[in-house]
Specification:
This protein has 6 helices and 15 strands. The protein is α+β, with helices and mostly antiparallel strands and 247 residues long. Strands 5, 6, 7, 8, 11, 12, 13, 14 and 15 form a 9-stranded mixed β-sheet that branches. 21% of the residues lie in helices and 27% in strands. The two termini are 24 Å apart. Helix 1 crosses helix 2.
């Protein structure tokens, strides 16, 4: 009981024990003075001085296929559509984890589990993210080898950082007729996720990225149509938490 009270923010655990001992707490209408009494905050009514504790919000997890032309934010000062517009308003309030830029598409995790979101968004979280990337012109193999090993890119704030080793393989050659430029698709797997990282990486070796689609995030695989979403399975949530270091 004291753990539930402390988690609700009403008092520290030690102070909660004092409140319980003083007979100020009721569980489903009955006074509780025993330390360590069990309760379920989602089902039981726990009151302190006659006032019910706020029930914890149900944690929810969704996989969304973000289309191009949507901001990965809760709102946009310029009035552009955001990923929140793709979810029903009756749903629990959720937030996007990480970012896909306006022109990118694909798998986006939406949740109200702030602790998990924070761990997944750390650049060093080592949660693999796989993308399908269409490039203008075909890079030479030595350029791809440099990207695999890691290159130094400049971030939006002017900082220069070296990217972690990446897995890159040719998915579609994209070859055209004689004299026409190839536009191949690569499968790129990163273990970090800096802003516009893939675009900056390929620009570093002289190639413009035309399209980016995230198809996998850890155990999650993109399996819904653009603009659609689904709830994660219990197993997917457990695997994500394990990858993020919560398991």
């Amino acid at each position: 009981m004291q753990k539930i009270m402390a988690a609700s923010g009403i008092a520290s655990r030690r102070k909660a024990e004092e409140i319980i001992a003083a007979g100020r707490v009721t569980l489903n209408g009955k006074v509780v003075t025993e330390q360590g009494a069990k309760a379920d905050p989602r089902q039981d009514e726990i009151c302190v001085d006659g006032k019910p504790l706020k029930r914890p919000e149900r944690q929810v997890y969704f996989l969304l296929n973000k289309p191009k032309g949507y901001m990965t934010t809760v709102s946009d000062p310029e009035g552009r559509p955001t990923v929140m517009d793709l979810l029903p308003r009756r749903m629990e309030r959720v937030y996007p984890v990480g970012r896909l830029d306006y022109a990118s598409e694909g798998l986006l995790l939406m949740t109200n589990d702030g602790a998990l979101a924070q761990k997944l968004m750390k650049a060093g979280s080592h949660v693999p993210k796989m993308y399908r990337v269409k490039v203008s012109g075909k890079p030479e193999e030595k350029a791809i080898a440099r990207l695999r090993a890691g290159v130094t890119i400049e971030l939006a704030d002017g900082r220069r950082v070296k990217t972690s080793p990446a897995t890159i393989r040719l998915a579609e050659d994209g070859s055209k007729g004689r004299g026409e430029q190839a536009n191949p698709w690569y499968e790129v797997t990163l273990i970090e996720g800096r802003n516009r990282q893939i675009r900056r990486m390929f620009e570093h070796v002289g190639h413009h990225v035309e399209k980016i689609k995230r198809v996998q995030l850890g155990p999650l695989v993109l399996d819904v149509e653009p603009g659609k979403f689904r709830e994660l399975t219990n197993r997917e949530v457990e695997e994500l938490k394990k990858l993020a270091g919560e398991g």
